[in-house]
């Protein structure tokens, strides 16, 4: 047997310590190495694709070109460890610890309340830390850029950015101003006590208390690595893995020899494209060539006519190089560079730009590339090199299409890219539209260049290139050729649009869909380019008055030239100050930092998968269905079981107890109902072995009919999960006969992925006796996991203990599903007798688990001409997926909450949950309320449009005004609701903003603003009394310390912090005396899910009860020795045999609902709120700038503000209303609703070509559906209107109070 080839030693540093890996595997990422080999678990796995930033670390390298140390952030999930030779890695553990010294970044993000669940926090910290290593006093723009690649699912970014702003120079954060008044406080005349300045506070932290940033305390670049860098070894390094060999040559000559020897081997630098592609396609390259040590590939050469950038330069370096050129050269020479810079600012996140190389971006030839269309029109040249020598090829459409005649030869590599300077009378622009402004793939991108004959408007050269509209970047050569010699004027514009639609062909059935939208962008972008060139020509005229006369641009069209700026949130949290007489020791009502905040920031907070491996632990990976509806004919496990490391495969036959419910199996038997349904599970010694084994399991299916995906399909097949739910009051039919007007409409609401940062995960540890199990699980409901495991294994519940330390986000997605994964893992643990760890990849998590229920609603609303609604009939259908899960309860809650804040005397609400062949949808924030109430608010918008009144007038007219009863006969007082509404109107200066919005819209044709204010009446809790009970267990130890345990789970909402605040107040003891370890079914049994916005409420009452019991027991001792200390009293109590442990209990709120009668008191109480949002939309692209999620449903104020803006555009375009609403408000929806000449041209093209128009041809939005107006004209150059304001002045005010 031959010995495996010997690998070179991989040498790098982690947190100042030298790492020598003698058997480096090229398939191992830095993330896995840090977590598994070095046990540095602060760096988190969340997406595995470099898209979320949870695994951000800092890498430091010596740059041979600049001879300086480069510090840059990267996503560790993409970086192969073999690429780190000679690098220094710094993780969150390496910059500070609660046991030694906190770094200022860690301290400030915690004390600024920038952590909730804390799973994303280490990545946030490392992005900010890297920024500060490069810029001691960064600008706010640099801060935003640094955090652009980091996602947070909890906080909404405001407090995270607030912590970062404390380092910024000239910070405009309101806490910097020291005026004692919030910079966003517009004042108001509300006389309520809560709104008086003396009762309101906005200070969440005291900046003066933060420790200063001292750069002298940072880790230095290891001297050993510096010596290695200055005297680099030229030998080739080779690292052999089981399947892949990594070769890193030390010289360019060696690289070219290797490329000639291994022509099929790809070059790998950042791994941002190759890595994800290999993972998704399951492809393995036996040999990878790394040119990272070749300094020639990072060289930059400047000449009088252009710029040559090495292919190995990262996109971040390219951005800096181009910015330097723009600052040094005349504007006329930097047109292409400016266009590239524009897209580099929003291409991916900072970490990806730091990793991805220019050469990799070009060679990858992605059809959606942001840079390649600009490089094409900028006449970029690719400098190629091989052993045979050098040659140049143009970066053009033929190259990007992969034509052999225009491509690299197998033995060639890309050495550099040459970018020529632009010249006078040459204009270059770049455009892109994506689902969001930053860090998102472009739907369509474009590069455009024109050269005009000197001092004329005659086209000399024209080049247009598009990404996202085909399998490769596409150039419009024929169109450009036909336009040469034409004047740059309106007839040329119309002709150009016609030619482009003919040449940039995108049939209605094109992959990826959204065809009409993309084709509209093709011509909309050209129109923007047309205007930009005219604007630039106007500047030249000012410089040279004798130049040619060019067409004037109407002031109303100037806003089409402006891109939305990237700005950070400017919100301020306002809270009621505590009473001046409240004890300073009493923490209730004060902005207490999250108990785990500092541990979140240092990476020392332990999540489920951070728990160290236990002895003999196995890894489990799930095998899921690839069919939507099929019969399982056979499952062949033989090949998988023969693989090394595979211990067993768990199937339904291995379950000793109950295999789930009859219609919801844990493991599929005989039939699968959706893609992603779990069929079996592989257990192996490592996760890599388990993942390789699942590829070898052969499952034979026979397709079954019908296959139902949509709500419409389900209705057609009468496919429902449960009976209809219905509520009715008044006489709806009679009311419809007496109203002035009736409107009928539809509402379509899309689904939503939970995207909790921490994927589903569980560790099951079997004990040595009595069939006991310890289960560590990320869940909102450990008791449900406990019960499910019990029934699955057929053992008593008392043998199973579930532990929840903390959960990295849940949002409803970890209520029911963790029980499934816990039960399957438990079966594996019992069968093998070994501990099982099950951690879902992000892909599997999104495939297997459901999300928010998509909804289709139909409404009929009858109203008087003054806007008073007399009758409302709503029928809802939600897509429940293939099993019932929580869909019946979601339907019930949706129906119960449909009326929102409005008193309408005649109502009929009906709801059904549809059964489809999709993974079961489940609980999600709001639990049906956001989808359902969107219908109600859409009715309001429709009524307003028909009455010619403003939506806020209709809302106010129909709102509850006095003590009343809901449709289900539960009494409540709307006093707080009205107070919220009035305060929001006042604090947002709503009416003056409305006037400003209308003025803006009169002056701007291509940009429109909208404003909306939405009220909310939200009922908390479950519609059942038993689900409101809670228990707590409080121990006082003889040293006076207190241990609190309760039934709630820490999901990021700070429930443990709140419980200690309650205990502190009740026991009159500082929080420092107290501790919460975890939630455990062994200490507090029979708990209820932490959900329904009531966890802190009911568990707080249980903790309060336990503390009151203990204090009652201590009363005689305290009375006897009132001057004693707490420790004295506890010692005396122990000596007197007084129990220092108490169980607290809260029986819960009474809640019931009789669906037969349609009445009850299903909810303990209501919370109320109101939110105002102002947005601005770009009618040409659908881009929009608004403010994001305020509490719960209140974020819909952004949606209706967009609706308002779209309505303004449609009114100006004389578009007939049709009441179909679609959510979410994507750029596609917005653009296609703002019908104009360009959308009309697209439609006419489909008609003239006799092509079937795409399904999106009747896209509608916000109650306004486009109707083709064939009389639309260009109307480009009308009389001038002065524009006083082009900037987007946005505001979001949200007021939320509770009546409990």
From TrEMBL:
Q: How is the cofactor bound?
A: Binds 2 [2Fe-2S] clusters.
Q: Which gene encodes it?
A: LOC112866664
Q: Which positions in this protein are listed as binding FAD?
A: 267-274, 370, 414, 432
Positions of [2Fe-2S] cluster 2 binding? 117, 120, 152, 154
Q: Which domain of life is it from?
A: Eukaryota
| Official protein name in the record | Aldehyde oxidase 2-like
Which organism is this entry from? Puma concolor (Mountain lion)
2Fe-2S ferredoxin-type domain boundaries: 8-95
> Domain FAD-binding PCMH-type: where?
239-424
Q: Where in the cell is it found?
A: Cytoplasm
Which GO molecular function terms does the record list?
A: 2 iron, 2 sulfur cluster binding; aldehyde oxidase activity; FAD binding; iron ion binding; xanthine dehydrogenase activity
């Amino acid at each position: 047997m031959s010995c495996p080839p010997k690998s070179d030693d991989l040498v790098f540093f982690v947190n100042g310590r030298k790492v020598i890996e003698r058997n480096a595997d090229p398939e191992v990422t830095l993330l896995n190495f840090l977590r598994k080999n070095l046990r540095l678990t602060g760096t988190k796995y969340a997406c595995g694709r470099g898209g979320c930033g949870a695994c951000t670390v800092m890498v430091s390298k010596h740059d041979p070109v600049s001879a300086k140390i480069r510090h840059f952030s990267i996503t560790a999930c993409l970086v192969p460890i073999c690429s780190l030779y000679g690098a220094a890695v710094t993780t969150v553990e390496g910059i500070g610890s609660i046991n030694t010294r906190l770094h200022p970044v860690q301290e400030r993000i915690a004390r600024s309340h920038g952590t909730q669940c804390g799973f994303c926090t280490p990545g946030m910290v490392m992005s900010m830390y890297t920024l500060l290593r490069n810029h001691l006093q960064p600008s706010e723009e640099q801060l935003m850029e640094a955090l652009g690649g980091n996602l947070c699912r909890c906080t909404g970014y405001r407090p995270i950015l607030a912590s970062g702003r404390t380092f910024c120079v000239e910070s405009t954060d309101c806490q910097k101003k020291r005026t004692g008044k919030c910079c966003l406080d517009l004042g108001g005349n509300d006389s309520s006590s809560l709104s008086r300045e003396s009762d309101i506070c906005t200070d969440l932290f005291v900046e003066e208390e933060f420790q200063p940033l001292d750069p002298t305390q940072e880790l230095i670049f290891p001297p050993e690595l510096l010596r290695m860098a200055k005297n680099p070894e030229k030998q080739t390094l080779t690292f052999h893995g089981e399947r892949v060999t990594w070769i890193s040559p030390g010289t360019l000559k060696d690289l070219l020899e290797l490329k000639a020897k291994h022509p099929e081997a790809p070059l790998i630098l950042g791994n941002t494209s190759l890595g994800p592609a290999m993972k998704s396609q399951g492809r393995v390259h036996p040999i990878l060539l790394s040119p990272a040590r070749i300094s020639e590939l990072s060289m930059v050469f400047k000449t009088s006519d252009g710029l040559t950038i090495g292919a190995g330069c990262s996109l971040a370096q390219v951005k800096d190089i181009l910015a330097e050129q723009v600052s040094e050269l005349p504007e006329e020479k930097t047109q292409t560079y400016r266009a590239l810079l524009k897209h580099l600012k929003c291409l991916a996140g900072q970490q990806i730009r730091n990793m991805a190389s220019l050469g990799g971006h070009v060679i990858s030839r992605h059809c959606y590339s942001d840079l390649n269309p600009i490089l094409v029109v900028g006449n970029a040249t690719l400098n190629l090199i091989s052993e045979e020598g050098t040659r140049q090829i143009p970066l053009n459409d033929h190259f990007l299409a992969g034509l052999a005649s225009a491509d690299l030869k197998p033995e060639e590599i890309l050495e550099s890219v040459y970018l020529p300077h632009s010249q006078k009378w040459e204009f270059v622009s770049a455009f892109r539209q994506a689902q969001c402004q930053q860090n998102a793939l472009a739907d369509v991108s474009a590069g455009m260049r024109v050269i005009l004959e000197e001092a004329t408007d005659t086209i000399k050269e024209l080049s247009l290139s598009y990404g996202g509209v085909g399998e490769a970047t596409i150039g419009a050569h024929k169109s450009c050729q036909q336009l040469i010699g034409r004047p740059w004027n309106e007839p040329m514009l119309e002709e150009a649009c016609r030619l482009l639609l003919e040449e940039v062909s995108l049939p209605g059935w094109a992959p990826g869909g959204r065809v009409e939208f993309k084709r509209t962008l093709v011509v909309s972008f050209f129109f923007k380019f047309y205007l930009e060139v005219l604007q630039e020509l106007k500047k030249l005229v000012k410089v040279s008055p004798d130049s040619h006369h060019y067409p004037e641009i109407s002031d109303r069209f100037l806003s089409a030239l402006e891109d939305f700026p990237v700005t950070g949130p400017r919100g301020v949290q306002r809270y009621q100050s505590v009473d001046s007489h409240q004890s300073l020791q009493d923490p209730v009502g004060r902005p207490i930092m999250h108990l785990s905040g500092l541990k979140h920031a240092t990476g020392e907070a332990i999540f489920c998968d951070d728990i160290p491996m236990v002895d003999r632990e196995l890894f489990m990976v799930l095998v899921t269905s690839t069919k939507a509806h099929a019969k399982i004919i056979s499952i062949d496990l033989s090949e998988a079981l023969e693989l090394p490391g595979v211990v067993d495969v768990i199937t339904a036959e291995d379950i000793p107890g109950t295999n789930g419910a009859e219609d919801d199996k844990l493991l599929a038997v005989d039939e699968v109902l959706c893609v992603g349904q779990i069929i079996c599970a592989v257990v192996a010694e490592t996760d890599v072995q388990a993942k390789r084994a699942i590829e070898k399991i052969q499952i034979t299916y026979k397709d079954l009919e019908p296959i139902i995906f949509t709500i419409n399909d389900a209705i057609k097949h009468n496919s429902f999960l449960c009976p209809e739910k219905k509520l009715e009051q008044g006489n709806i039919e009679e009311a419809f006969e007496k109203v002035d007007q009736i409107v009928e409409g539809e509402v379509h609401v899309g689904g939503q992925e939970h995207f909790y940062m921490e994927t589903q995960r569980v560790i099951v540890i079997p004990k040595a006796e009595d069939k006991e199990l310890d289960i560590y699980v990320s869940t909102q409901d450990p008791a449900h996991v406990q019960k499910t495991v019990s029934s699955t294994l057929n053992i008593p519940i008392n043998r199973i203990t579930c532990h929840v330390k903390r959960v990295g986000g849940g949002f409803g997605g970890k209520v029911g599903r963790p029980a499934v994964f816990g039960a399957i893992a438990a079966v594996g643990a019992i069968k093998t007798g070994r501990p099982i760890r099950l951690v879902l990849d992000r892909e599997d998590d999104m495939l297997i688990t459901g999300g928010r229920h998509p909804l289709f609603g139909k409404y009929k609303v009858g109203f008087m001409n003054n806007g008073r609604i007399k009758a409302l009939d709503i029928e809802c259908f939600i897509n429940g997926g293939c099993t019932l899960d929580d869909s019946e309860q979601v339907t019930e809650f949706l129906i119960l909450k449909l009326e929102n804040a409005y008193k309408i005397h005649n109502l009929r609400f009906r709801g059904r949950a549809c059964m489809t062949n999709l993974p079961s949808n489940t609980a999600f924030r709001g639990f049906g309320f956001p989808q359902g109430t969107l219908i109600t608010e859409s009715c309001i918008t429709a009524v307003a449009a028909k009455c010619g009144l403003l939506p806020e007038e209709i809302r106010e007219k129909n709102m509850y005004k006095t003590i009343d009863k809901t449709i289900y006969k539960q009494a409540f007082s709307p006093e707080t609701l009205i107070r919220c509404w009035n305060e929001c109107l006042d604090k947002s200066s709503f009416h003056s903003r409305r006037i400003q919005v209308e003025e803006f819209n009169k002056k701007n044709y291509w940009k429109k603003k909208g404003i909306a204010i939405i009220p909310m009446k939200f009922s908390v809790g479950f519609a059942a009394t038993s689900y409101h009970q809670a228990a707590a267990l409080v121990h006082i130890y003889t040293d006076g310390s207190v241990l609190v345990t309760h039934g709630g789970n820490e999901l990021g909402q700070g429930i443990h912090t709140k419980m200690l605040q309650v205990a502190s107040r009740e026991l009159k003891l500082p929080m420092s005396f107290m501790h919460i370890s975890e939630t455990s079914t062994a200490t507090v049994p029979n708990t209820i899910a932490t959900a329904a916005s009531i966890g802190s409420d009911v568990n707080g009452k249980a903790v309060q009860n336990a503390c009151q019991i203990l204090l009652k027991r201590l009363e005689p001792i305290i009375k006897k020795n009132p001057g004693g200390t707490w420790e004295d009293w506890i010692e005396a109590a122990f000596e007197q045999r007084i129990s220092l442990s108490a169980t607290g209990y809260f029986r819960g709120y009474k809640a019931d609902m009789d669906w037969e009668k349609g009445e009850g008191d299903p909810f303990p109480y209501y919370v109320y709120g109101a939110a105002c949002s102002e947005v601005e939309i770009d009618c040409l692209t659908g881009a929009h700038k608004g403010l994001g999620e305020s509490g719960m449903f209140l974020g819909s104020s952004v949606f209706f503000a967009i609706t308002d803006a779209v309505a303004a555009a449609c009114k100006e375009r004389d578009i007939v209303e049709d009441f179909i609403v679609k959510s979410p408000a994507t750029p596609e929806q917005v653009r296609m609703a703002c019908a104009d000449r360009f959308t009309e041209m697209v439609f006419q093209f489909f008609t003239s070509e006799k092509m079937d128009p795409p399904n999106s041809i009747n896209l509608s939005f916000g109650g306004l559906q486009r109707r083709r107006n064939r009389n639309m004209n260009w109307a480009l150059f009308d009389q001038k209107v002065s524009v006083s304001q082009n900037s987007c002045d946005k505001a979001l005010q949200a007021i939320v109070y509770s009546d409990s």
